[in-house]
Amino acid sequence: MSADQPARVLLADGQVGLVRPLGPADTEAVLRLHTGLGERDRYFRFFGPLPSTVDKLAAEITSAPGECHLAVGCFLDGTLAGVAHCERIGDTADAEIALVVDGNQRTHGIATLLIEHLAAAARANGISRFVAEVLAENAKVIRVFAELGLRYEIDHEGPEWSVTIWLDGEDGYPDAFARRDEVAEAASLAHLLRPASVVVIGAGRRAGSVGHAVLANLAASGFPGSVEVVHPVAEEILGVRCVPSVADLAGTPELAVICLPAEAAADAVEECGKRGVAAAVVVSSGLTGTAAGARVREAVRRHGMRLVGPNCLGVLSTDPSCPVDATFLARRPRAGNIGVATQSGGVGIALVEALTGLGLGLSSLVSTGDKYDVSGNDLLLWWASDRRTELVVLYLESFGNPRKFSRLAARLARTRPVLAVRAGSGGTAQRAAASHTAAAATPAVTRDALYAQAGIIAVDTVAELVDVLAGVSWQPLPRGRRIAVLSNAGGAGVLAADACEREGLTMASLSAETAEGLRELLPAEAAVHNPVDTTAAVPAEKFGQALQIVLADPGVDAVIAATVPTAVGNPAAALADVLPGADKTVLAVRPGQRERVSPLCADGPAVTACYDDPATAALVLARQAEYAEWLARPKTDASPLPEIDAAAVREFATARAAEREGWMAPAAAAELLRLAGIPLVPTRYARDETEAVGAAEEFDGPLAVKADAEGLLHKSAGGGVLLGVDGPLGARDAYRLLLTRFGPGLRGVVIQPMADRGRELLVGVRSDPVFGPLVVFGLGGVDTDLVADRAARLAPLTGPDADLLLDGLRSAEALWASGIDRAAVRELLLKTGRLATLVPELAELDLNPVAARADGCAALDVRVRLERRKPADPYLRKLSG
User: Fold this and answer.
1) Domain ATP-grasp, which positions (predicted)?
2) Kindly report the CA angle at 109 between 105 and 112, in degrees rounded to 5?
């Protein structure tokens, strides 16, 4: 949904409104809004009494939108509550803005929402500044402008102040709108997770039904509010009063939980909306893709409700001030600090069972199901303001707004770990790829890049999720990747060391002092270098002392302690005594234990996680280390790129896309790179052999001649590249040869001087309409498909993102040791990311090969594909559905 389409929005108090463009059909509503203003509001709006021409003003506001005129309105339950409109000033990029909000709705943040949406529409129409005249005494409107987060200036002279607002600044805007989003979302989701009253619709009298289970869990949860049941004939179920319809309820409940067949569920949602119910949980399945499902969506939109589901497990909160369990879980989970959002009810059930078995508890659980409304993004905002939630778990099968997700997840991950299960990794090949970049940019690659950049700890299975949750729940994050392994069973230690190296961890080099201390403590046959083998004959007390010696080594960031019980003693008991005073990460391994992971406890609570396999402990440490490294990364890049004419880049690409979608002509692609500051070897384009001769005369030395032919996707593989061509006559002959090969499909040839190819790399962009542009980096040229060594990150790229790309290849260590110019390649990646961000029409970019040498780098070939797209505003607050 773009800025010029209707959008469901959250007000500051949690109400759901609708912001949409205004048109001629809204004239009467705009007139009623203005004539209904109080005397002081009229004074502030018109600097005096209501003008006699207000009907003409209403007509002007609702005139058809265009590049010079834009107007948006906010509607609450179908009634217009506020209007913002702007008029372009002449041929400038400035527009004068005016704003009016119903005096009875002024504290709900409507004015701010209207300006945000108007600004998004204005930016899309080439407007870069808003200007306004405001009475000096109109403190409320001045505060709205000041708190937007956009750069602004106020001329304080006289009784009427001039305000200028720049629409393209982002320094404080993301944080400002995120704070507003947080406040509104917390107020809105409180209807679901802290309701004052609940009605269960479809709670059967039979104990085996889903509705009956939901009502039983709600009653057992200790929910302090009022509870009613809608049932056509029963008078009471489980001691709860029943009424035959929503209209017969004693009061308007805050939350409805609906457990009915699909058609009846849609009826119930509509009835709840008419009654004024603020939120609903639709457990029912069979709605999506049906007319009944469409009715549910429409009812939610029309009545301003929040909705979880359909086809979901329900919602749960263990907040002691308002515990509520509106799920059909078999047993109530423990109260704790883990927040869970899951699209799959089955995954939610499995996770609750596993965590309960470990003694870990939930702060809240929301099963989003088919996600008609409430999504993972909403819950990330909820948890940002929920101090009870210290760990967040996500199981997401789809992303409605992945750019917002990335932003919210990264913001949350700065304060607490966020974990996610990778879902849908199999069978992810896209349609037949037209370039190497497209072949590399599968949905799984894009999702993994999203998780990595947002600081999310990603795992592949629910079992791994539980493993990592146990590690981060009971131990601090490791300070680095240098791992020591300590065991009383040599085989377990060797397996742990192997597992660490597979996971990209480093076996720590123990200092001479550490080795000497261990040698003095342990039997002569013990191995005192990493991995340390204390031998099975060592009692628990000495094993604990050995662990303390290893932990004291400054070259050790974390320890895996693998133990087996013997007749001499159980070293695991010593771990429980040592760990409460340790300041480094220690994970335990006890081969042969029945549980995959279990808490290792002292006399009280768990002190660390104990795993049945060293490989599991190594995986957990690796995920923890990745998260710790992400936390340590700088948020911004201290080395800005050289300035380019961003407007010229956008204008050129937009014009080319308007002329013709698809692959750009080689000359146009080269010009786009030039405007973006991306290095390309000198390139000339020739449409016939005469032009080929003329182009060749511009260069000295041997030439490369490349075909531009219909259907030729990969030039080298398709016989479209001739190297070592000698001079103008050679260029003529090369043209004739290519004409023979490709016939009428030959549109022309590209002529370049032969370049030192150095190390051949690939840099590309693949833009997804939902996820946005993905930057791909890897080995190029003939190695592209043979080796398939690539890394990917979503644009825009920061300096740290570019560094992760450079170091993300399997061959990275050898590549940069070869002496090529890393700084030049890094700059190329950043420029490519900037181009992808500047040009939303850029569907695909392939720089392959890029010749990287000791003195710089340059693309030897470029292919660009454009699609007509409207730029999406990343800072537009709106709900899904």
Assistant:
1) 670-721
2) 125
Tokens linked to 30: 């705009």
Res. 170: pLDDT tops 90: no
Question: Which runs of consecutive H residues, i.e. helices, occur in 503-613?
Answer: 512-521, 540-551, 571-578
What's residue 759's pLDDT? 93
Q: What is the CATH number of domain 482-614?
A: 3.40.50.261
Backbone conformation region of residue 856, classed left if phi is above 0, alpha if psi is from -120 to 50, else beta: left
Please, are residues 669 and 652 in contact by the beta-carbon 8 Å criterion?
no
d(CA 453, CA 210): 40
* 491 φ/ψ angles, rounded to the nearest 5 degrees: -60, -40
Angle at the Cα of 319 (from 421 to 359), degrees rounded to 5? 55
**Percentage of the chain surpassing pLDDT 70?**
95
Q: What is the mean pLDDT of residues 426-455?
A: 68
Span 163-172, mean pLDDT?
A: 82
pLDDT in tens, 498-541: 999 999 999 999 999 999 999 999 999 999 999 999 999 899 99
CA–CA gap between residue 547 and residue 544 (Å, rounded): 5
User: Could you tell me the pTM of the whole model?
Assistant: 0.90
What is the per-residue pLDDT for 430?
39
List where CATH 3.40.50.261 sits in the chain: 482-614
State which CATH number among 3.30.70.580, 3.50.50.60, 1.25.40.620, 3.30.1490.20 fits the domain covering 682-754: 3.30.1490.20
Tokens of 29: 């509503």
Strand 391-395 versus strand 335-342 pairing type: parallel
- Interval 592-650: pLDDT, tens: 899 999 999 867 789 999 999 999 999 999 999 999 999 998 876 666 777 888 889 99
Question: Angle at Cα 689 formed by Cα 686 and Cα 694, nearest 5°?
Answer: 65
Q: What is the mean pLDDT of residues 548-574?
A: 93
Query: Amino acid identity of 79?
Result: T
Take residue 86 and report the two structure tokens written for it.
């702007």
Express each pLDDT in 699-728 by its tens digit: 999 999 999 998 887 787 789 999 999 999
> Which fold would CATH assign to domain 643-679+756-881?
D-amino Acid Aminotransferase; Chain A, domain 1 (3.30.470)
Strand positions, DSSP E, 157-223: 160-166, 197-201
Q: Pick the closest to residue 283 from 304, 303, 255 (CA basis).
A: 255
Establish whether the linkage from the previous residue to 539 is cis, with ω within 30° of 0: no
880 neighbors 185 (Cβ within 8 angstroms): no
Asked if residue 508 lies in contact with residue 530, where contact means CB atoms within 8 angstroms, the answer is yes
For domain 7-169, give the CATH number.
Answer: 3.40.630.30
Q: Answer for the pair 52, 28: CB distance below 8 angstroms, yes or no.
A: no
Q: Which two tokens stand for residue 559?
A: 């320890």
Tokens 């979302």 identify what position?
185
Helical H segments across 194-344, by residue range:
210-220, 262-275, 291-303
- At 440 the pLDDT is 61
Amino acid making up residue 477: L
Task: Tell me how far apart the alpha carbons of residues 691 and 677 are, in angstroms, rounded to a whole number.
Answer: 27
CA–CA dist 115, 144 (Å, integer) = 9
Token reading at 56: 């003409």
Residue at token pair 């009471």 = 236
Burial grade of 659 (CB within 10 A; 0-12, 13-18, 19 or more):
exposed
Q: Is the pLDDT of residue 70 over 80?
A: yes
Q: How far apart are CA 126 and CA 651, in angstroms?
A: 11
Residue 744 has pLDDT above 60, yes or no: yes
